[in-house]
Amino acid sequence: MDRAPGLSVRLKLTFSYAGFLMIAGAVLLGAFAVFLDGYRERAQDAGEIVIAPSGTELLRDFAPAAVGAIVFLLVFGFAGGWILAGRMLAPLTRITDATRTAARGSLSHRIELEGHQDEFRELADAFDGMLGRLEAHVAEQQRFAANVSHELRTPLAITQTLLDVARNDPNRESSELDERLRVVNARAIDLTEALLLLSRTDQRSFARDEVDLSLIAEEATEALLPLAEKHGIAIETSGDITLATGSHALLLQLTTNLLHNAIVHNLPERGTVRIRTAAGPEDAVLVVENTGHKLSPHVVATLTEPFQRGTERIRSDHAGVGLGLAIAKSITQAHGGTLSLSPRAEGGLRVAVRLPATDRQVS
């Protein structure tokens, strides 16, 4: 939700402390002045000799000191209020930082707020407990997906072997059913491998090296060039050396998925795919754009969900298993980056991947 900028809670508390202290000081000084004036009048009524200034003299002598005292209280209130508010809100800052860390996909982080029990520590402990349960649930889902993928590999491989044997049998006439079975089985194998890769990237357990995204883009383009030529799609590549830190195999898979998606979901003829890389001051950028039908922002927002292709973009051949963009997003997040999708005004999709730049590139 977009909100208008406003004052921070710390600054609001500072104003509250300073304002309260200044008002309390002003009331105290005013009460003191009234007390002196009342005491002088009561003493005069009693016939006592009181050496005290008149009301005008009292105001003249007392006003500068009162103003100075109020200004001192205001400055002291601001300084003290700022320090006290910072100390009071320090646990809340840690909770906020932990929330942002969890939102980026790191569920292993814990606040572990020290000190005696109070409202902030109750909130921190509850948040740590929620993160623990969420991490355990996600880990269970990843293990389930990995185990299912492993279990499906063997029967699918056996089925593929039997179909190949039947197709190569000279004494048996091949039929349309055989070919359809081979296509369905190959699709199931692709789905299994995609699920296994998705579970592995979510675990973020892979070696990291310095890689050049421009070379990875060229490698992916060369591999998918026959598919692009088959569909009449022109691929344009551009970009300088773009260094990032990560797994070459996973980043190649990411780029291949984005490029395959851009080729398959394109115009029926004379479509274009543009892939470029750029080295920024703090990040390495990979952008893949393609022509195609116009997409609504609502459809684009759901394309990174598993098995979500978008009915406006589906094709009958080489459509994949609906995990290409989901895997690309998972690989990006595993590398500490961000993946953003946006519809092009003239039709098609723009996908931008931003990864942290290497130290050598930043310098």
Automatic annotation (TrEMBL):
Its EC number is 2.7.13.3. It catalyses: ATP + protein L-histidine = ADP + protein N-phospho-L-histidine. One of its GO terms (cellular component) is plasma membrane. SUPFAM superfamilies: ATPase domain of HSP90 chaperone/DNA topoisomerase II/histidine kinase, HAMP domain-like, Homodimeric domain of signal transducing histidine kinase. SMART domains: HAMP (SM00304), HATPase_c (SM00387), HisKA (SM00388). Keywords: Kinase, Membrane, Phosphoprotein, Transferase, Transmembrane, Transmembrane helix, Two-component regulatory system. The chain crosses the membrane at residues 12-36, 62-85. One of its GO terms (molecular function) is phosphorelay sensor kinase activity. PROSITE patterns: HAMP, HIS_KIN. It is found in: Cell membrane. Residues 147-359 form the Histidine kinase domain. Residues 86-139 form the HAMP domain. This is histidine kinase.
